[in-house]
Amino acid sequence: MSHVAVRAAPEERLAVARGLLARGGHDLGERGLPVTAPLAELLPGSGLRRGSTVAIPEPAGATSLLFALLAEASAAGAWVGIVGRPDLGVAAAAEAGLALERLALVPVPGPDLVAVAMALLDGMDVVAVAPAGQGAARPAAVRAAERQRLAARARQRGAVLVALGPWQGADLELCCAGWSWAGLGAGAGRLAARSAVVRRGGRGSAGRGREARLLLPGPAGRVAALPAAAVAEPTVSIRAAG
Q1: Which residue segment(s) compose the domain that 205 sits in?
Q2: 125-157 residue pLDDT tens
Q3: What is the chain's mean pLDDT, rounded?
């Protein structure tokens, strides 16, 4: 089965989102959701805690970090919804390890972003929202009261809410810095892997900052620990626009 993409008219979005719930629904029980080993070392409890809110506040590397964060849970049976990302590449998601048969996309929620995310939280294991969409269909900013409603719904349903952008009050924050690409040196002609420093912040135990240098993505398209030998490989530094 392929992924589910919702591009319905505004009045149909909520009905379609609720219809997706019959296919999803907390397949992994009440335990936390697994995360691939290179990232697990950064997370309190070595996984995604059900009922928590995770923010990826910086745009640099946000998509790669989102895929890396969700791939292990998706492969293990979790249902994932992503709202507000019309530019998201389904092929890249599959290469990163997400199971497309359990992936629901609402690329352009318009003004219905909060309502659609609330509906998906009722039955999905993870719901990622991107309040800062692009183009004419850019959603309105999510107000503080709406952030609180979404976080409360995630707690009630035992789901994980992931915010792509700044999200005041998030339990956990992850961001990337120090990008460098490998693979163009010595006439290779192809970007093979990208190293980055992933930093953790947040509330409670997550507030004790920690960081790790990872390949995001690695040569196979998935997150990997940075080999010691990689430091000596030719790299091309890429500076994020803006």
Answers
A1: 173-237
A2: 999 999 865 433 455 678 999 999 999 999 999
A3: 78
Q: Which two tokens stand for residue 238?
A: 């890429």
Residues 67 and 166 in one domain: yes
Where do runs of H (alpha helix) occur along 31-176?
37-40, 62-75, 90-96, 113-121, 144-157
Instruction: For residue 242, tell me if it sits in a domain.
Output: no
Q: The tokens 């990232």 sit on which residue?
A: 39
Domain CATH for 36: 3.40.50.300
- Give long-range contacts, CB 8 A cutoff, 24+ apart: 135-141: 135/86, 137/86, 137/108, 137/110, 139/84, 139/109, 139/110, 139/111, 139/113, 140/111, 140/113
Q: Count up the domains in the chain and report the number.
A: 2
- Select from 62, 8, 5 the least CA-distant residue to 240: 62
Kindly tell me the sign of the dihedral angle through the C-alpha atoms of 78, 71, 115, 163: positive
Displacement of CA 170 from its chain's centroid (Å):
14
